[in-house]
Request: fold
Amino acid sequence: MVFFFSIYVSYHDFLNYYQGYVDKVEVKETGGKTLWINARHFRPFLTTGGLSGHFRLELDDAGQFRSLTRAQ
Reply:
């Protein structure tokens, strides 16, 4: 399964993950479904400007995480 979504989270707001207050990020994929993604998967994309962009999430047939990449 493949999902596409856009996201913006400020660096300050993402600190809640590092401080242990949250562990999931809620996004709406382009088809309208709400997805909860473990915040650790976004760590490679976090900058001092925050987390932003259009992403591609791939899950296996059982709905388990396979990959998260920045969409072109």
Notes: The CA atoms of residues 3 and 28 lie 9 Å apart. The two ends are 18 Å apart (CA to CA). The chain has a mean pLDDT of 93. The first helix runs from residue 11 to 18.
